[in-house]
Design goal:
EC 3.5.1.2; binds glutamine; transaminase activity; lyase activity; glutaminase activity
């Protein structure tokens, strides 16, 4: 089976684990310690609160070093919302101090771009042509849920590919990006019934790299 860890320090990790374990070919488990990072084919960094998650990583040197080594080895990672912030190289606009960041992706993010919790919303987004769904067939559009979500406000390298945008107050903003083995989405595909993003990521992004 494909072994997918989900960082389980805080936030919406159970939802990811449940969806991933509903696939016959996946074994998904919580990652709380450095030792949990061993023998892992892919890692999900969930939504939650990135300052809190970053602090919890920062006080556990073993976990921190193991996560950084997964980044250095190019193990596929997918950050949703706060997880996308952790994957970025710089964050702006948080109410809280800048979190510890894994700096895996050459993007800068703006936190809470769409406003506070009460401004949460679900909208339809259309993936760009980069996002091909060889294994899941459909996927012209997704319902995406945004909860105090960040956006990728600046892209620092040509190999960052924009997978989806949405329009907010007449601005087109980037809400899904990919760079090499790393994927960041502003929204929460683990909170909608549609499991296509998980299926796509496992089958198109993790399986092909499995040794
Ligand atoms: N606003 C949160 C942060 O800055 C992210 C919110 C979320 O993950 N739903 O970390």
């Amino acid at each position: 089976k494909v072994r997918i860890g989900v960082l389980a320090l805080q936030g919406a990790f159970i939802e990811h684990i449940n969806i991933l374990n509903s696939f016959d070919h996946v074994f998904s488990f919580p990652v709380k310690t450095g030792a949990d990072c061993e023998n892992i084919d892919g890692l999900v960094l969930p939504g939650g609160e990135s300052t809190t998650m970053g602090r919890l990583i920062g006080i556990d040197t073993d976990l921190k070093e193991n996560l950084e080594s997964l980044v250095a080895r190019g193990v596929p990672m997918w950050g949703t919302c706060a997880g996308m912030i952790l994957l970025s190289k710089k964050s702006h606009g948080g109410k809280f101090p800048d979190p510890y960041l894994l700096r895996a992706m050459d993007i800068e993010v703006t936190r809470n771009y769409f406003g506070p919790q009460t401004m949460s919303f679900t909208t339809t987004i259309h993936p760009t042509d980069f996002m091909k769904f060889e294994t899941t067939k459909r996927m012209e559009a997704f319902d995406a849920t945004f909860i105090r979500a960040p956006i990728a406000s600046s892209i620092g390298s040509e190999d960052v590919r924009v997978l989806a945008t949405t329009v907010h107050e007449e601005n087109e903003v980037i809400v899904a990006v990919e760079q090499g083995p790393f994927l960041g989405t502003s929204f929460h595909p683990e909170l909608t019934v549609d499991d296509s993003w998980h299926k796509w990521w496992v089958n198109e992004r993790v399986l092909p790299t499995k040794k």
